[in-house]
Design a protein that fits this description.
Layout (H helix, E strand, L loop, with lengths): L1 H5 L6 E3 L2 H16 L13 E3 L4 H7 L10
Antiparallel strand pairs: 1-2
């Protein structure tokens, strides 16, 4: 993130917060145990970090807001 902010060779990054992955897995497991049929592919979500939004990401890191649903 610092390299994006400093304007070096890194122009962007894609982030997939680990707790989004964990949160999605727990929800899927809970649904599976309850007998629900789950899709074969569950999207977790990502977001793009660019020079335009890197300051906002740095301010919030690592407190990404939990995603709702999937």
């Amino acid at each position: 993130l610092r390299a994006i902010k400093e304007g070096g060779i890194y122009k962007a990054d894609i982030e997939q917060p680990g707790y989004w992955i964990g949160q999605t897995c727990v929800k899927a497991c809970t649904r599976a145990v309850a007998g629900e049929k789950l899709p074969s592919w569950i999207k977790v979500g990502t977001f793009l970090i660019t020079p335009e939004n890197v300051d906002e990401v740095l301010k919030e890191y690592p407190k990404y807001k939990p995603r709702e649903g999937y």
